[in-house]
Write a structure and sequence with these properties.
The protein has 253 residues and is an alpha+beta fold. It is built from 6 helices and 14 strands. It has helices spanning 52-68, 109-112, 142-148, 153-176, 221-224, 230-251; strands at residues 7-14, 18-23, 29-34, 37-40, 45-48, 78-81, 86-90, 93-94, 97-104, 120-130, 139-140, 179-190, 196-199, 207-211. The strands form 3 sheets. Strands 8, 9, 10, 11, 12, 13 and 14 form a 7-stranded antiparallel β-sheet that branches. A 5-stranded antiparallel β-sheet has the order 1-2-3-7-6. Strands 4-5 form a two-stranded antiparallel ribbon. β10 and β11 form a beta hairpin.
Length: 253
């Protein structure tokens, strides 16, 4: 797809890490612009990282490509990369949930439950969080999600199945490049046809990624925990992800 897509100014939405623009003449699409901003603690901690928007745009688009070109195809909103920090995406009606899959115990789960930091789970843990900044995006269960009316029983099963396929696919992919997928957060939206697809991004902002040999953290935890060298971590994930996708493409030619 090699058309000239122009964003309609001003943006229609600005979040902590992205801006969204309508597309001139194409109401079925949006343009997402990745920012260099980084936040933690629901925005309580804020800074910018040089080229973070570039890294997250490239990484996320490559990982969406992996999901859509795997044997177990996972639909995403990705349409076309437009520039280093901008991507054309399919417009959806976002579901007010954050979906988290955990392979290793760390972060908030060890504050809530008696797991050791770094403990590996025999089976991945699937969690739902209700997207509401005023409430702090609380953890909710299956019944609460249904009672809130954000999803149906069928949606719940579909979202859980999709999230676990994403986990299996990305674990295998990251394993090939010496990275442990500790956990990740995804979001879903509903297309005009009623289908659920992955939206937002998959990046070091939304995943915990550890080097397989050293267990060095290569994700947003470096900012959350004041470890420093956030740009270096994002750059390293970008390098490994893009090199592996390049290898896959030419291996299969």
């Amino acid at each position: 797809m090699n058309m000239d897509y122009k964003k309609v100014l001003p943006h229609i939405y600005e979040g902590k890490a992205n801006r969204l623009y309508e597309v001139e003449g194409h109401p079925e699409y949006l343009i997402i612009e990745r920012k260099d901003d980084i936040t933690a603690g629901n925005g309580a901690k804020h800074d910018t990282i040089e080229d973070k928007g570039f890294y997250n745009n490239k990484i996320s688009n490559q990982l969406f490509w992996v999901l859509r070109n795997n044997s177990a195809v996972v639909p995403t909103h990705f349409v076309q990369e437009l520039s280093d920090c901008e991507t054309l995406i399919q417009k959806t009606n976002p579901i007010k949930l954050e979906i988290v899959v955990r392979n290793i115990a760390t972060g908030s789960i060890i504050e809530r439950l008696p797991f050791d930091d770094g403990q590996e789970f025999t089976n991945p843990i699937f969690e739902l969080y209700y997207k509401d900044d005023a409430l702090g995006d609380p953890l909710i269960n299956h019944s609460e999600a249904l009672a809130l009316g954000v999803i149906s029983e069928r949606d719940y099963a579909d979202i859980e199945g999709m999230a676990l396929i994403v986990n299996d696919t990305l674990k295998e992919f990251f394993n090939e490049i010496g990275i442990i997928l500790v956990d990740f957060k995804i979001e879903v939206g509903r297309t005009p046809q009623g289908d659920l697809i992955i939206i937002d991004e998959i990046s070091p902002d939304t995943c915990r990624l550890w080097d397989a040999e050293t267990r060095k953290k290569l994700d947003k935890d470096r900012f959350r925990q004041g470890l420093g060298d956030e740009a270096g971590a994002y750059r390293e994930i970008y390098r490994r992800v893009c090199e592996q996708v390049f290898f896959i493409v030419f291996r299969d030619v």
